[in-house]
Amino acid sequence: MSAVPPGEEFPREWSFESSLIRPYSLTGGRTRPSRSDFSMTSQVVAVPSGAPPEVDPELELILSLCARPLSVAEVASRSGFPLGVTRILLADLLDQGYVMVHTSDWERNRPDAATLRAVLDRIREL
């Protein structure tokens, strides 16, 4: 699997599948992103800058993929990283100001798990 955005050339041949690096080493042992303000369907786009940032190759790959808006799930799929690793790396890029995340109003205002459980319990009582 090639980890190159369609229609673009990436200077390094890199594939998560052929790498011996384990996911926890890419994330520094973290299992959760530092932020929770985006979901799998949130749109992520790289912030345009004059000079390319000095970042790790994995983050550089993600930034190249995000030249145009992509969902978090698409970034994971195209990069070859597991979704959890992608969310952590995207949160790092967001914290550093290299990407912007757009989340729909529906995602921000959807009911929480407790509300959904209460509705389900009421339906079962019928």
TrEMBL record:
Q: Which PANTHER family match?
A: DUF742 DOMAIN-CONTAINING PROTEIN (PTHR36221:SF1)
Q: Which Pfam families match?
A: DUF742
What is this protein identified as? DUF742 domain-containing protein
